[in-house]
Design brief:
Blueprint (H helix, E strand, L loop, with lengths): L2 H6 L7 E4 L3 E5 L7 E7 L11 H17 L7 E4 L3 H4 L8 E5 L18
The protein binds guanosine-5'-monophosphate and zinc ion.
Length: 118
């Protein structure tokens, strides 16, 4: 069983923000911003590549509710999902990072030439 499935089953403790029957929002253990929360479906999907549109529809609403719960819906935030090797995905259970609580940087994402494909 993957680490986030264990968090869903409460076999591994987490600091939960919001939970319903299908989704869970909890603080990232290694935050990269003043607010860094992970949103996951309780059902295991390896990544964004595998998830169905009905789950995404419901998860989008759950993420909006999470942002409200964190009081960052007005100040702004960033939603990221890393997919696979190039995406830098470490945990192979679909998750969205919700980052906020400060003005976020948007700079160096790779050492490759970003204009190579233009
Ligand atoms: P990824 O790199 O796969 O997009 O992000 C995985 C995230 O999960 C990382 O930001 C990492 O800090 C977080 N993480 C890994 N293990 C745990 C854990 O056991 N508990 C919590 N709360 N976060 C975790
Ligand atoms: Zn899982």
């Amino acid at each position: 069983m993957c680490i986030f499935c264990k968090i869903v089953k409460k076999e591994i403790p987490s600091n939960i923000i919001l939970e319903d029957d299908a989704f869970l929002a909890f603080h990232d253990i290694n935050p990269k911003a003043p607010i860094h929360v992970l949103v996951i479906p309780k059902k295991h999907f390896d990544s964004f590549n595998e998830v169905d549109s009905e789950t995404m529809k419901k998860m989008s609403i759950f993420m909006q509710e999470t942002a409200k719960e964190l009081h960052i819906d007005k100040s702004g935030y960033r939603v990221i999902t890393n997919v696979g090797n190039d995406g830098g995905q470490e945990v192979k259970h679909l998750h969205f990072h919700i980052l906020g609580g400060a003005k976020l940087a948007w700079q160096h994402l790779s050492d490759a030439n970003p204009k190579e494909m233009i």
